[in-house]
Amino acid sequence: MKTLKIIPFLVFTILFIFGCETKSEQITNKEDYTKYLNIKGNKSLTFARNEIDFWQKKFDAAPNQISYLSQLASNYSTIFEYTGDVKNLYKTEELLTKSNEAYDYSRVSTVRSLARNYISQHRFKEALALANKALAIGEGRKETIKLLFDVQMELGNYPEAVKNLNAIRDMNDFDYLIRLAKWNDHKGDLKTAITFMEKARDIAEKYDNKALKVWSYSNLGDFYGHAGRIQDSYDSFLKTLVIDPNYSYALKGIAWIVFSKERNTTEATRIIDAIAATHNTPDFYLLKSQIAQFEGNKSEEIKNRNAYFSMMENNNYGAMYNKYNALIYADDKQTAQKALEIAKIEVDHRPTADSYDLLAWSYLNLGENKKALEIAQKYVVGQSFEPKVQYHLAMIYKSNEEADKVGSIKKELLSSVYELGPNLEKKVNQL
Fold first, then answer.
1. CA separation (Å) from 139 to 55, 199, 348, 429?
2. Which pLDDT value is given to residue 309?
3. Where are the TPR repeats (predicted)?
4. For residue 89, what pLDDT is reported?
């Protein structure tokens, strides 16, 4: 995971159920983005592969030159970012581990790079151990503190995260501003989060930094969407693609607008299929399965869900898709026990409110209503403002006959239908 990527890469974690296809306001225009669906070639990928060839030959000729390993690792990481092929993530880890061992874990930049790789793999506790090792070395302290903030947020160690955030306070620093935005989003203050993300974007534009502009535009696209500013979200994703036509994250955002706002399943599927041709990850099959479920096409729903699990079996994704799997399994009484087992692992990996929500949701679907309520009240209430988590909370209250607590949550959820997805709207209305 790159230094700046503090917002989760996987955005399509919402489960849908069949609902009415109401026509909605048109935001998108095919002419705006179709040219990005079948881009011939990828300059960033070609460059990374050429670099790998170059540095591998140099390393083969002089295997004592350990610095070449970091060059190789960086380019394998780029390939992972653009293709989603997890083998490149593990190749990056292998090279960085070899490099760190050769330096006896004394080179702070290489230690931090391995920690970020572990974050991408959802190996957060190991990432924290490396971040602390980097801090002990002392060199490049500010960059290490940024890393510590990122890891502590993933682990739910919020007092430590804030301490690290305050230690790097600088309202003119891009990296500080995006982390300040993340912190405010975590607190449920989306308006303030957007303000700080826009300030970060302004800095990226001021210095005309391509990488920072791509990052800030695409993440503003997410934030605007969460705030219900769909036109701004769409425009921001398009601005991302102008700079990097191969940036699939922005196309995913547009696909979500087409599906969730415009309810155009055919066009959403066309976009998803185009992305998956070059950036193939299991979540695309899951999203297509959910779209088919919305359409009432049971055979397509099952086919795509099976393809998702098949891809999971054929690749070692570790804990990267645990949240997806738990939500899928929890929905079926026959597999709810599996969901519980995964949720327990997630709580151990990252004891955040979201992980405890998975645990509570799994217990609820196993019929253990009181247990679900106990966990939710202790670890979730007031600690996560994610709409999906709030929906689970409302269902837990309802199942425990605490209907008086459902009304206010339902009101909030109805204002978050776009983020939840069109089919969950029906479920929310039934609360």
1. 26, 28, 31, 55
2. 95
3. 214-247
4. 98
Question: What would the two tokens of residue 79 be?
Answer: 């390939």
E strand segments, 254-403? none
The domain in which residue 183 lies consists of: 171-244
Q: Is residue 363, in this structure, part of any structural domain at all?
A: yes
Are 239 and 322 in the same domain?
no
64 alpha carbon, distance to own chain's centre: 38
Locate 119 and state its tokens.
């974050």
pLDDT on residue 345: 95
Q: Give the mean pLDDT per block of 10 residues along the chain (431 residues).
A: 37 36 74 95 96 98 96 98 97 98 97 98 97 96 98 97 98 98 96 98 98 97 96 98 96 96 96 94 91 93 94 95 95 92 95 96 96 97 94 96 93 91 86 90
C-alpha distance from residue 122 to each of 7, 126, 177, 322, 349 (Å): 13, 9, 24, 10, 8
Separation of CA 165 from chain center: 21
Distances (CA, A) of 325 to 15, 151, 346: 11, 23, 11
Q: Which 8-state DSSP code applies to residue 20?
A: -
CB atoms within 10 A of CB 369: 17
Q: Has residue 416 been placed in a domain? A: yes
- What single string gives the DSSP state of each residue in 285-322? HHHHHHHHHHHT-HHHHHHHHHHHHHHHHHS--TTTTH
Sign of CA dihedral 258, 16, 408, 362: negative
Q: Which two tokens stand for residue 340?
A: 């519980």
Residues in Cβ contact with 142 at an 8 Å cutoff, skipping those fewer than 6 apart? 168
Phi/psi of residue 330, nearest 5 degrees: -65, -25
**CATH code: domain of residue 190:** 1.25.40.10
Evaluate whether residue 54 is within a structural domain: no
Q: Do 327 and 412 reside in the same domain of the chain?
A: yes
Which residues, including other chains, have CB under 8 Å from residue 155's CB and lie 6 or more apart?
124, 125, 128, 350, 351, 352
Residue 192 CB-half CA count within 13 A: 10
Q: Is residue 91 part of a domain?
A: no
- Residue matched to tokens 């706002």: 261
Among 350, 351, 371, residue whose Cα is nearest residue 362: 371
10: helix, strand or coil: coil
